[in-house]
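Progress report, Aim 2. The chain analyzed during this reporting quarter is listed below.
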Amino acid sequence: MRVRLEAEIQTLPGNKGVLFSDWLTECSSAYFEAATGILEPSYWLEDLNLSSVQANLSDCWASDLGDSSTQSGIDCVCEGEVFTDELKDLLPPDISARSREEQIQWARKLLSAEGEDIPDNPPKQGRQPGIPFRPYPFGRYHDTFRYIEGSILSVTESGALDLIEPCHEYKAFTNTSDETKFDKFTKEVIRFGAACMNSRTNGTIHFGIADEPHGQVLGVVVKDREAFTRQLKTAIDGYFEHKHKDAAQICIKPPRFVEVLNKNTTSSDRCVIEVDIASEYMSCKDNIFHTYNTKKGKKKGNELGSQPSKHFYIREGGSTRDLLAPTTSAKPGVEFGKFVDGIAQLSERRKQAEEKHLRGIKSSTQGSRLSQMITGGASCLDKSHFECYVVVTNKSHPSHLECLEFFIELNPTAVLDFDPESAKHGLQHYCDQKMAVIPHSPGMYKITEGIEDIANKLRLTRNTSWVFCNGGFDREAPSDTDQWLKDKGGSVRNVISFLCRKDVLPNKRFLVIFVLLSTVRERMDPLVETFSIFLQELRGTGQILCICDSEEAFTSWRDLIEARCAINISSRCIYELSFAEVNGTILSLWSKHRRTARFLPCGGGSSVLLEKKLESSLDTLDVLSVNQCNGENEDRIAIEENFYKGGKVSWWNFYFSEQPGSVSFIKRDKFDYITNTLIQDLCSLRKACVLLNLFHVPGCGGTTLSMHVLWALRERFRCAVLRNHSSVFAEVADQVVKLLMCKHEEQKPRIPVLLMIDDFDDMEKVLYLQQLIEKECSKKDIQSKSPQVILLNCMRSEFSESTEPTSDTIFIGNDLSEKEQKRFEEKLKEIEQTHKNAETFYGFMIMKKNFKKEYIQGIVRKTLKSFDWSKKHAQLLAVLALLDVYCKGSALSISLCEDFLDLQPKPVCGNIKVEDAFGKFSNFITRCTVEGKVVFNAVKMIHSSISKECLHELTTTGVSSKAEITNLLLTTSQFYESIQGKDNLLQDVRHILVKRYYSSEDECQFSPLIQDIASASPGMEELVLQNASKRFQKDAIVSQLLARYYYLKKKDFSEAKSWAKQARDLSKDSSYIADTSAQVLKHELRIYIPSNREEPVRPKDLGNFLTVAQSAMEGFQETQRLAKKESAYRSKVKGDQCPINTSGCLGEVHVGVLIIDMLKKIPVFSPDGVRHDLMSQVLSGDIKIQEVEENDPRISKNKTYYHILKEFEDLLSNLKYRMKMNIDFLDNLHVNLSSRFGMKDRREEVAQNELFRCLIEYAKVFCKTDSASILKNKMMSAGMKLLQMRQFLESRKADTFSGILSHLSTNTSAEEMEQIVTRYKYIFRPEHNPTVRERINFIYANVVLSCIKLNFNVLLSHQDLLSILSQVLGEQVQQNDSLSLFFIAVVLLWPHPHGSVYKGLAKYISQMKASYHEVMKDVWNGKSPKVHFLLGKKLGYQRLVDIGEIKRCTKADQEQITSMWGNGRIWEEEEVKERLLRVTGEVNNNRILACTQHLRLEVAPMYKSQISGVAEGSKVSFFLGFTMKHPLALDIELLSQKL
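Predicted structure tokens for the chain:
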């Protein structure tokens, strides 16, 4: 426990504390400084108790105790005015009356080291007598009251007061055996009960409360509570006269068992037994009540004679007295007679007291005060000034839980719970059953990373964060009150500081509600400290509301806060309402539609309840219920205006349009086609999750159309909208399946989910989400005979030309049809009748005007007229326009705008709205909700066309420029202070600076913004980038951006290297950053190569060139090393689909080409054929440079060149090897793996084009052959001919199996492929000893040629080919050749229903899979193995149908083929069906065992969801595809379901 010593001294009566301090100073000034610790007022002294006094004062007291200063100190001690209550209790009660010698002796005992009479462990400060703790309310049985062990009741044992206020009697009830406890209990209750009835007073007798210390709570263990009730009832009948039995039964209430909590507020096994006596007038009237001893015969004679059998008890002072007992002070019966004579008068007093008590009727206005405070002055919670709530609460009682439904509806952002048993049987346990709560410990709020990253991990603004502030979570033990501050106070302070940050919760727009479910009695209670911290963080009580259900609890709380914080919080407290009344008041503040139960469709017109807990757990989805919007909404005008001005459509807009007298919502032409045709067709597919793409021009109503589709289909599908496209997709998939399964786990078929996803910028992400939903369906064994989930992908398109719809894609352009224009005209008439300011509804009018540029220009010019750049609201508009143009959908948080515009929000309604602060520009902005790492309200531009035109108007009129606006955005620190939305803004600003776009022809060097600035204001882009580097000082990507700018644009390689180094320092393990360092060197190489072919290269330039080239090669090799390390890591990270970075491989090939270009220009390797061959041999490592030098006739002229070449001989001699290795690596990657979902990768296309160009240059040097004369030249030696044959194959990419397979997709002619097979046939001759790889390649070459054209003489017969394959399979094969061998073996040996059976095939499949994992482990992440062949119906070579032939059958373009492949429609094409063979098999352990000719071969399903939920052993049929990873089952159909 911590106490402030100065506070203790200041509270001493008569200012004796000051005298004591003076006295201590005289005794020892050094001690005073150390012991009082008040040199600084904030100094906290730990554990002020006897031991510390002993340790620090013993030396001071060792001297003579007779001097005056010492004596004055003793006086203070003896008067009990100095020390805390624990030390006062150690003094005798009559210390002041004792002699001076005795007083000094007590002082010695108290303050010396020899004080043997002093207890070793006196009670702690927090549990001292005098701390008020009122008894359980009289006459109540179901209150939430509990006692705490060691606490002291604030009332003493007493007699009759006002007859209504109960008197009290305490019984420790500790030294009682099981045999005597009931007897003792009933006797004491009868005595006390009869005394209260005769005295006509109410009273309570407490068992488990100590007499000494007086009123201390001990508690007793009660095993059988019913037994006490039974025994008491029986005893009343036995002890009272028969005529008074009924009255006694009425007045003496059944026992109440009040729970006793441990000191840390956890439950114990003890309770206090209390019996209330209600001596009501109607029961007692004028009667007197005797009791009789019912156990007379059980005692000895002398005992029997000494005790009267008849008793008459009354309350006298704090005890019970028997007026019939023998007494020495008066004659027996005299006092009794007097009492009986006054009984009528006493009864009348009782009657009057009861009447007076009943007249006290409570009147309160606190219900309306609660409404005002909890809404911030708004009319209801739907319009509350407060956007979120934080609740602080303590120990609850079971009866509370019936009155806390408002907790669920309020959906607090965070709950700080100080009940360590809350999760066991308290408030958290109750709420967890009804809403989604996430348990947290305070330690989770420690700032170890970005603020919004922490908030995102905690899901802070999505579900209720339940913070266990005193243990009870994650095995953390609770702390006693006096230890809590030391044990847990710091971490809870971190929680509060985190929640009160402006970048976490909205500034001045959240309310902290202290819900005091238990009375706070101690100044060291954690809630007092918590209040103090909130008070400091919020700088006042305007955002704090305190709720308790009794005046006693309020008074205690108010006094404690006033003592701790020196403020009166009465005006912020609600205490005259019960929690039932609080609950009803808060629930009544929600509008009707908010309180309406929501339902989901369940088929056949039925529906099921969407429980609040499930709905709140689906925090990534906005679920559209069947009865959405049912109920009133008085904000129709405001909602419609927001939409027509350009805000996002809400469900209310559709609802309002369906009401009587309204013009129906404008139906776009494509609406019926989507709802009646496309979605119906998709429902016929055999896939768990299908995709419908709706591409649209920004601002043309694509999102509105998509939501209109959901609204129309909400009774046929379970509809939802993905809240945030940046959500964790695995969580989204899990929640989508939960929505699908809600209340119909057993029902089949289920109602599918129709999920709208909006604003995705990458189709790969859409397809990845689709794949994860497929996997989740499979995991849950959801059978997919038809789609279970339909994704409606609403995606922006930069192309305005309309395209024809396909089976899963439709396009919405910015050109309205005549029908649509007429509908807009009709709607405008309605709008003009109901809205006064329709001319400012620009979102609606832009579409109504059919996107006419003249209209947009007109309203922009009119609005921006006299635009003043110096005004802050004008600057903010320019920033919003710039962000919206270059980062679609960008927004600025309300808090950020308020801060920038110097608006001061207050925690009450009536503040200036941010929109109004924009003045005449307010019609160009709208409010929105941003679902980022934290959810917050923001403003954005109303329409993309308005944004573009605003930016164009500002820049063309010279008011501002894009560079100026960008620099304002980068240099204004106010935008990036700790405020909501800061991370989103940083992300958007970084996006407009860094994000590049690619085409298949070229690579865009910089972001569109940087390129536009460079075009409009040449040179200003450098200043922008410099400012960006200052704003993003720790961002390696921004430093990389500057490095790229300096080497690409400025050709300043020194500066580029500096920025590249800075980027590497910031991100040492990034292959992309390492690649930039190497790219700087690669581009630097170009300045050394003369542009004039005839211009000779100087030796110095050659040396510099090769030095840089070597560094570049090493840089690219480091990039490759890091790329493989990254890929290995990514493969272990769930959800990381980023493919391997291959730029290091291509960069090294580039440098090799540059080296070749440079070497061609030096005299040593002049362009004649002989010198060319020498260069080829040197770069291949076949000859040494020394040998070339020795045979050079111009050695004297070239000596300097040779000296330099020999210095770099290692680099040069390995050049061909390194280039070839990288070319083969990239070729293997591109041929055998595709993007995860078959989508075009534009960057990869650019890289492949570059690789092809480099391959041509490579072939010119290392594969220079005359293909027409090789075979005809009989004079050429066999070795030379063989070499040139191999060089020919290398030049045609036919020396690897990947290169040969690539000819299937590169439109290679049959003649060229015939030449390749011919060369291999020559190499295959036995005398040439072909390698295993060459024999495998020979097999591939024949297969590929057969796919291109079957009728060639050079083509081996199929049987001969199988013989060669069989031979190779019987030999030892290197690891590098195993994958190619086992793949072609599986392809060629797959059994035909009527052909030969190869029993080793299962082994080859297994070996192929193992080889794939070994060979491809560095590169498969984010990729899928390509299907090279499918199994056809014919025999021989014709059994193999290459994928190109399938694509040609569809007569569709590449994008359509990708779509058809993904949704399975490709298998419905008749030409495809005619070519392919359906294979049968059975389901086995999420795989399929293909059954053919007594073989059972493992096949992987392309979509596991197609066999999920299917019983083991069920028969299926499918088409068979062959990939390097495994045989693949396509278009799976269920033939028979095994029961």
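Residues 1-90, 111-130, 295-306, 1267-1271 have pLDDT under 50 and may be disordered. The longest strand covers residues 267-277. These observations will guide the mutagenesis work planned for the next reporting period.
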